[in-house]
Amino acid sequence: MTTLSLELPDGRTQDVEVRLLLNAGYAGREQDEVQAHIAELAELGVPGPATTPALYPVSPYLAQQVSEVQVQHGRTSGEAEWALVITDGGVLLTVACDHTDRALEVHGVAWSKNASPDVLGRKAWRLDDVRDHLDQITLKAWVGEGDTPDTLIQDSSLEALLTPDYWLDVLTERGLNAPGTVLISGTVAMTGGVNQFARSWKVEMADPVTGHSVDVQYVVEQMAEPIG
């Protein structure tokens, strides 16, 4: 089972054994826009969800803090997200990049979420410390053709997504609000014309009130061709 090690603003480190990993989907706060996005995806062959917002269970070992993601082909990409990490001492908030298999996505979104890791940041904030200004926190992603992500592909804020407290209520209703649960938020819109099938990804969550930021960065490596 994966253990996350998260550095808090006071310098202390919190280790969390991941027991349950969940990926939210279609989780924009404006559900009219979400429905329009579902229609766009349907034209690409991606099946729509039975309900929105959606919530997909993911194998807990896919919660990773890595600098390299290995994939099977060239049609995979990340997604800028935040992550809730529930601990014995409270709820932490960090940044995440949900690396998704776009070729597999047309056969099933849940399948595509289990094909690659959710890469989480190594630093985190206590949710209680930022709850009163969450909508001001920015969420951005960059991609790069080389090892350095240098092209902005996502530029939004937490205001665009359903809140952490919304999801904590959902977890509580289902008996899942317990230490070791990690929930990834769902993502924000990508900039048109930017190649998402890039070699490198960086996601940053920045707090203008405290001046703190947390980020995650990795490169994508394609595996060798299978034999047989």
Automatic annotation (TrEMBL):
It comes from the Bacteria. Pfam families: DUF2848. This is DUF2848 domain-containing protein.
